[in-house]
Amino acid sequence: MGAAIGGHLLDAGTPLAVYDPVADACAPLAARGAVACTSPAEVAARSALVLIVVVDDVQVREAVVECLETAVPGTVLALCASIRPDTCRELAALGAERGVHVIDTALVRGERGAEEGRLALFCGGPADVIDKIRPAVAPFAADVMRVGDVGTGQVAKTANNILLWACIRADVESLRLGRALGVEPAALRRAMALGSGANRPLEEWGKHRLRWPHKDLEVALGLAEEAGVETPLVAVLPALLAELSVDDLSDLL
């Protein structure tokens, strides 16, 4: 996703510095004019806005700590990965000690959204800081929504992920049942699109890559347990999603 985002920024003429632990990952962007850096700290030293597009809390924390070594006051560090809200708040407090704004900008709409330049950003942080980054992220983000204070963007993304994976599993079961009863999946999808069961995964059927259901739902379950909220549907979703493959979805086109 970071490579796709970088490509859109370069297309828009945005000066870009990039880093990845796997050097080859930066090569295509460097060939197009991006500055390939040797560390997150070097990226931060060159940048007013740093987009941290990694996998988990550990990687985010490592990147932010390195960026804070060189980031000047006023720099914005945007946490794009799916991580815990308390991690966002912890890192925002660390940044505030140095006059650096750390906000969460959770990426929604997945890899296809990144490739197509139509990501949605669910943001948590001061309104003026989020407004400040809107022009910079416009080349790859069709929507930028402030949900609330730091960490709330992650809460919104977790809620969104629950609905995404629940819909996919429910859609599969509905389409399989319809086909068994003599209705072709394509016809059934057209009918359901007009009804109260319409949902975006159904509308975009066949395009989902099923990359991160386990990670997304693990985060959701952990937060629910800490909040003391019972989520029996979410509890069974990881096993139900593990049974599905992209081929299963394609079979119902």
Averaged pLDDT: 95
Question: Could you give a short account of the major beta sheet?
Answer: 5 strands, mixed
For this structure, what is the CATH class of the largest domain?
Alpha Beta
Secondary structure category: alpha/beta
Shape: globular
- The number of distinct structural domains comes to 2
If helices are DSSP runs of H or I spanning 4 or more residues, what is the number of helices?
13
Element order: H for helix, E for strand: HEHEHEHEHEHEHEHHHHHH
Q: What is the CATH topology assignment of the largest domain?
A: Rossmann fold
CA(first)-CA(last) distance: 26 Å
Spatially, the strands of the biggest sheet line up as 3-4-5-6-7
| Share in β-strands | 5-15%
Structure summary, number of beta strands? 7
Helix content: 40-55%
**CATH architectural name of the largest domain:** 3-Layer(aba) Sandwich
